[in-house]
Structures are given as C-alpha cells and as structure tokens.
Amino acid sequence: xxLPDRRxxxxxxxxxxxxxxxxxxxxxxxxxxxxxAELARRAGVSRxxxxxxxxxxxxxxxxxxxxxLDELSETIPLPQIPDDAALPVVVxxxxxxxVLSPASLELIxxxxxxSRELRSHPAVAQWGQRTVEHAVGILTERTAHLxxxxxxxxxxxxxxxxxxxxxxxxxxxxxxxxxxxxxxEDIGQLRERTLGALRLLAGLPPDxxxxxxxx
Length: 215
Fold this sequence. Notes:
This protein is mainly alpha-helical and 215 residues long. The protein folds into 2 domains: 1-60, Homeodomain-like (Arc Repressor Mutant, subunit A), CATH 1.10.10; 76-215, no CATH class. It is 68% helix and 0% strand. It is built from 9 helices and no strands. α4 packs parallel to α7 and α5 (87-99) runs antiparallel to α9 (187-202). The radius of gyration is 19 Å and the shape is globular.
C-alpha cells in the first residue's frame, strides 16, 4: 500500500473512531454539557484532531448513525415479492424487511433517542433531513433492484412517505428513556407499531409482517 493510501486509511479510521465515540458519549451522558476533551480521550485523539474531522460532537454522532444505516442495510436481503405486486406494496415490503430485523429497530431507537437529545440544537432539522434522505436513498436503490422500470418520482414519494410513517409511529416520548435508560416498549411492540403505520399508509392487508408460508 502506498503512503497516500495509508494516510487515507488512517484518516478514515480516525474519522470513524471519533464518530462512534461521539454517539456513545451522547447515549451515555445526554446532549447537555458534552466535552470535546472527553470525546478526544475516548477516540484516542487530540481535541484539534476532533475539530479537523467534525464541527461538533453532535455532527459526529449523526455521521455514525448514517454509517450504521448503511452497514445494516447491507445485511438485510431483498424480500421475495410477486411480479404483479403494486409499487406501494413493493416499497412497503422493503420497509417491512428492514423492520423485521431486531437490529434495525434497535438502530431506530438510537436514532430516536439521538433526535430527542439534540432537539434544541440549531442544526437538528438539517441533521434529521440528512438521516431521512439517507434512509430514502437506501430504499430507493433497493426498489430499483426489484422494479427497475418504476417511475423514479413515484418511488421517491412512496419511500419518503413510508419512512415518515415509520418515524411517526416511533415518535413517542414514552418510547425513549433518558441517557442510559431503556425503552418502555420491547422490540416486538415497536415492530407492531411500525408495521401498523405501513398498513395504514400503503393500504396493505393485515397480514403484513406475518411469517412467510414455508409450505
């Protein structure tokens, strides 16, 4: 590996380490009184290095959630969907496949917790939009694999709507305790709330989320 490649690899490794430490710091301590010195200590870097990579601890934490979304999406296989299924059903089934994963709901909970912790931050709306756009981008790409001839505008509208429906289903203060706390509902209940939102928005039958017939 050439010297420039090694430098780029080290920079990327440092970038990721800072982001991971930032998210963990907010989860553990909340958004009030965050310390760049503590973040630097956890990431094993200097304060100057932190600011060479991110403008704030909050921005670093948001970057970590986007990476986690990418990594998680790569582990979830495309669902089997009939060729004659309507486009809203296709997109909803893709969201369902994501929701069926306990790891996905745990990530959604962390995103929800992070959103609440950063609610008073002036850039929270911008970061929230970035996260939504990232999720929509993942869904749009996966929809294209299943329906390559679908109208891109229709796909985007459906993806935006279904992501918003899932977010609304989980946007309940009772679902998210304070830093270090635990959700008041278990993963199964959260899954059902989200699937309910999908059924309502996409006009899908009540068997959405039922185990596939193995026979």
